[in-house]
Amino acid sequence: MIRTVLVKLLKTSPLFRLVLIPLAFILFAGLFLVIDVLAHKKPELHLLEPAIAQSGEVVVIHGDHFGTSPQDNWVEISGDRLSANTILEWEPNRIMVLLPETVQDGLVYVATGAGKSNPLIFANRSNIPVRNVVQTSITFPEITGFNTPRVETGKRLVISGKNFGLSREDSRVLFTWQLDPAIPLSPQNRISQSTIPCSETLFEYEFWSDQEIRVRVPDGAASGSVYVQTSRGLSNGEPVQIINQPGKKLYSDQRTYTVSLNVDITNITAEDGNMLLLRIPRPVASATQRNIEITRSEPAPYLENYRGMIFHQFENLRPGRTLSASHTFLVTVYRVETEITANQVRPYTDTDSPVYLLYTASDPVIPSNNPDIILKAAEILGNEKNPYRKAKLIYDWVTETMEWKEHENPNRGVLDALADTSGSAWDMALLFTTLARASGIPAIPVAGIVVDENRESRIHWWAEFYLENFGWVPVDPAMGLGKPVHTPGDNTREWYFGNIDPYRIAFSRGWTDQKPMTQKSRIVHRPRSYAFQPIWEESGGNLEKYTSFWGDPRVTGVY
Does residue 487 share a domain with residue 353? Predict the structure, then answer.
């Protein structure tokens, strides 16, 4: 009825048409204005995480309407705009920033073209006064001496003192680190930046009691102070001389990366009583790769660090549901350069040490006890006895003999690469490691990603070998051949024996042996991935089928 009347008026009444057209224009303009206002809302701040921090730490700003990039937008703390190189990540509802040296207490704002947000209060931890408490007794750890004033890398150091604690738990022994003196250190984090802890995974902690600690000197340690750090605090620093008789190692050209990882689970067919476990590798700590921090985990993992992995457990998955696990890491990587005098390298004497026994043994990806491997190693080395020269002969054979080729079979192994003398970075890294172990040289393959000049990343593999009284020496046969990407800096065959660039992030060093969580679970293995491990997904119960997509690690920021 109403429609009929309107149509009739439009046809017969010029006055009605004259009034209706401007009215419609006004209505449409108002609608577009409302849409524009909704699309350009002022930013809103909800939470600072953490609200109390200090220079050099990462703060995440949670809120809404931030836009998709820092272009023409900014973050303000205490009246000062943060520079672009301190913005690690910018998303519509979260911004991750690295606090600069000059950060002060004050209000935090986010500004966009739509305006300035509401403020949140930030406090600089270094400015918060600490009340002096009279100590009735000394509880801080205290070092009183060592069994020797001079010790070699990898050898045992006995630390005497008190208040170390009855067991180690989360306590650490810190050595002075071989860091390039040109790299600036922040006053607040000088100790953590200039020291390197002993490694649990490399068996460097041997004994811990309240008055005595026995450790092996870690790779990367230099002459200087040694500290004991416990939940009670940091001990006094006592000097010790580190002897690296064969040569020296230097860490320089610091690079910090923001790395993102995503796993998606779709097409679920299941009934109640099902389970899915995800084991997501995280960047591995070493002398070369430090200050690893998880800045984002969605959802919160069941275990944040389970044998070098983030462990997710999902139960009672529903058909049609989509699951996602997303993680962001902050990783600092260094360029490593070694200078070794071959004549100073001696054969291994500590052949009963855990490092020697583990990293000269065969494992699922390193068939070093295979007769063909042993025969080829003997052929390559001849009568050479020097471990350093032996490693160089193996590296030269791999880089001079192997033809670069990406094979379609992902399950292809070291013996296949040896047989047809062709392969990718995977084959070359594993072949070098296998031949080294067969020759009595501790060696380890490394899996991760390499980053090019455009921040594009791809999966890559390289290796390290161990010299007694010196530490781990990096090698990258594929990069020595200029494969798979050209990275800035040196890129020659000779340079990549003993040196490594900072344009890479390692997710595993060696094979991470794992066992299923349940006896009847179904296992998914990802061949030739960015970490060496047998289990990536484990499902059980009434989970009939699903589809998983693992995105390769992606670099989202470099500074």
Answer: yes
Same domain, 107 and 226: no
Nearest alpha carbon to residue 496 among 476, 519, 524: 476
Rounded-to-10 torsion of CA 392, 254, 489, 482 = 50
Q: How far does CA 474 lie from the centroid of its chain? A: 18
- Residue where a domain stops, chosen among 243, 260, 277: 243
Give the residues across from 284 on adjacent strands: none
How confident is residue 107, by pLDDT bands cut at 50, 70 and 90? Answer: confident
Both tokens of 393, joined, read 């002969």
98 forms beta bridges with 58
Whose structure tokens read 């995105």?
551
Please indicate, yes or no, if residue 320 is contained in any of the structural domains.
no
Could you tell me the pTM of the whole model?
0.77
In angstroms, the Cα distances linking 8 to 2, 12, 271, 421, 510 are 10, 6, 61, 87, 83
The confidence score (pLDDT) of residue 128 equals 60
Copy the structure tokens of residue 380. Answer: 């390559």
Q: What tokens appear for 435 in the block?
A: 């031949």
Q: Is the peptide bond before 484 cis (omega within 30 degrees of 0)?
A: yes
From the list 305, 365, 315, the residue with the least C-alpha distance to 538 is 315
* DSSP H/E element including 134: none
Burial of 379 (0-12, 13-18, 19+ CB in 10 A): exposed
Which residues are paired to 255 by β-bridges?
Answer: 333
Q: Judging by DSSP bridges, how do beta strands 422-423 and 309-315 pair with one another?
A: unpaired
Range of the domain at 210: 142-243
The answer to whether residues 408 and 494 belong to one domain is yes
Residue pointed to by tokens 């600690």: 213
Q: Which residue type, as a one-letter code, is found at position 341?
A: T
Reported confidence tier of residue 183, pLDDT bands at 50, 70, 90: confident
Q: Are 317 and 539 in contact (CB under 8 A)?
A: no
3 state SS of 81: strand
Residues 363 and 455 in one domain: yes
Does 270 reside within a domain?
no
Comparing 1-5, 140-144, 472-476, the range with the smallest average pLDDT is: 1-5
Q: Residue 72 belongs to a domain with what CATH number?
A: 2.60.40.10
Tally of structural domains, the chain: 3
